[in-house]
Design brief:
With 106 residues, this protein is an alpha+beta fold. The chain contains 4 helices and 4 strands. Strands 1-2-4-3 form a 4-stranded mixed beta sheet. Helix 1 packs across helix 2 and helix 3 runs parallel beside helix 4. The termini are far apart.
Length: 106
């Protein structure tokens, strides 16, 4: 159920703020939260993640400065060290739910 993370995203962001969602239900959360994606890259296989995320997604996020990043899984970005490093430098944990974590821009 995406109602709780969608409501939290709406609370933490403004309607025109871009967000980045990590997880299998990314497309559905963008719609439920009524927010646009901060990157065109939001479905990447685990085999491509380290290189792809470092080269493309992190650069998008640095350029666009997403207001929030949502982790819809339990991976905690462990397959994406560049993304994990970027999040730890630029974001703070703002909300945690049973199946999600939301990071807000510092």
């Amino acid at each position: 159920d995406l109602a709780a993370p969608a409501a939290a995203v709406r609370h933490l962001t403004r309607a025109n703020d871009p967000i980045f969602v990590w997880g299998n239900d990314a497309e559905r959360l963008y719609t439920a939260a009524e927010r646009r994606p901060a990157s065109g890259y939001f479905q990447v296989s685990k085999q491509l993640q380290p290189k792809f995320l470092g080269e493309f997604v992190v650069k998008d996020l640095e350029r666009i400065k997403a207001r929030a990043i949502v982790d819809l899984g339990t991976e905690k970005f462990r397959f994406a060290p560049d993304l994990a490093d970027y999040i730890s430098r630029s974001y703070r944990l703002a909300e945690t739910g049973r199946d999600y974590r939301i990071y807000a821009r510092k």
